[in-house]
């Protein structure tokens, strides 16, 4: 308990201290993620049951819940084993039956004495035209009527835990909730009409009608904001710590960048120039840069990253560019080499494949400063990789690199600036949740020379027509990607494999026309197949999604994606981005299998409607949810109990600006509101933030 404020201790105690929870129930709840009273407070009801008093069951239309006062009539025990026990009762308008299975007559007689009045509440159904209530939820003497709320909250249940137990436990946890000072900015509270924390908890656990269960109900919205604010405070603390960590001002003189810009066959877009200016300003500052570069497929991120790396070289330092796979690292090298030649700088590649003398020579040149820009995979993390003067680390394909790897890379040089690039746009809410500690540059314009890609949906039954059309295209000298969902045939799946499709297409097109690339091939074979396709020797490249990112073959103008309905939206958008890079009109054919699910059809239709990666990212989020879009296990994406980052992105933006403003005015959280914010961080178990601020 050391460190945690004393007033919060009861909320972090043992569940068995709560009324009605024994060791076994506590164990069951823990399996569902409820380990302490605090977790119960943030497990809100998801629905409710209308239990308002009625004069008679005739006032509801069965099947429906009714709560009525009745006079207990005759008991009819079951004559045969397995048959129900029935009790006739009468309310103000009609007689009906209470029905019990496997019930003991003596206990029912005690519960429902003939001739007495009772309040019963449960689901009324018609059976052979007679109204009956099977196993009423509540049977009480009229004097205890207040124990049944007019609107009963229904909680998510775990294992064998009943609603009754859960409701009792939640009430016991609520009784432990202390009065706490306010951590939300007063003008925001007033504008939103939010209650204080304790009142909000009581209102969220005691809804009076359906509207109180909405995420937009003031009490729930306030509690969601608390979660988002705690998360954004953690990110803002990490950000201010990065900024406090002394960076090294890196200012280039522009000589190398000007050479490259003058030699380019096209003018960079306004968005590219703006992003380079933002990066240059960060690099020139005293604080370490931590910036996220977001751009759509083909928006020209590589040029922006290279110009940023040149700033480091102009200042007498070095830069490194990291990619998650070797194919991508080699693609970056191929893309950067011609630019590097224009600038007269040395670019080298380091991957896990470098061994022995060759590797040693590269490391020696790197340590001596003879290599200006290093491109590599995670091989650059190895302990013996030392730079003469590393100034900038560019990380591509962010969500395959964890935060820990980001930090490790940053430790390779003193005060290294960090630029992270994503392959496809991330929805705004996820960018805030995942990278809220970083500043954002957005490439929202496409460079000239990229042609729109015509996207068509074609049933897999018409595959022979597709192959026939490809024959004509190949004869005209065009190149084709053909993407399959699997590498090899699988007994458990009807999806086509790359190896099988390659054999079939080779039989149709003849030897030497088709190439094959997938992740299980030896690296040398994979590279050779890619190189033949890039050189135009092979015309059809059959592949799995290994070609999803970074591959650049301007002459390839047709993309066939087999069983497209099995791929995710962002992945399909990525794959489509491999074509449309040259002057030829490009086509993307989405071959789908029948029957199409609603979700599968919707994904394919969105793709046909738009090439805007930002819109596609938002649609993907709406369809799949946050964890799936990034893959929660590797994303470090927080799991909120109340907040919904898909639908409450605007609330997340408030929280980010609020957190940053609070830390700007009170960096040590020492003031009145700062002290309250510390309580919030303890309450929300933001241990990382507590460590950052040194209050633990």
TrEMBL record:
Q: Coiled-coil region(s) at which residues?
A: none
For molecular function, the Gene Ontology terms on record are:
ATP binding; DNA binding; DNA helicase activity; hydrolase activity
Provide the alphabetized UniProt keywords.
Answer: ATP-binding, DNA damage, DNA repair, DNA-binding, Helicase, Hydrolase, Nucleotide-binding
Per the UniProt entry, the Enzyme Commission number(s) are 3.6.1.-, 3.6.4.12
User: What sequence ranges are listed for the domain Helicase C-terminal?
Assistant: 462-622
GO terms under biological process: DNA repair
Whether Metal-binding counts among this entry's keywords is no
Query: Where is each Helicase ATP-binding domain found?
Result: 282-443
Q: Which enzyme type, at the first EC level?
A: hydrolase
Q: Which CDD domains match?
A: DEXHc_RecG (cd17992), RecG_wedge_OBF (cd04488)
Protein name in UniProt: ATP-dependent DNA helicase RecG
Q: Which organism is it from?
A: Wenxinia marina DSM 24838
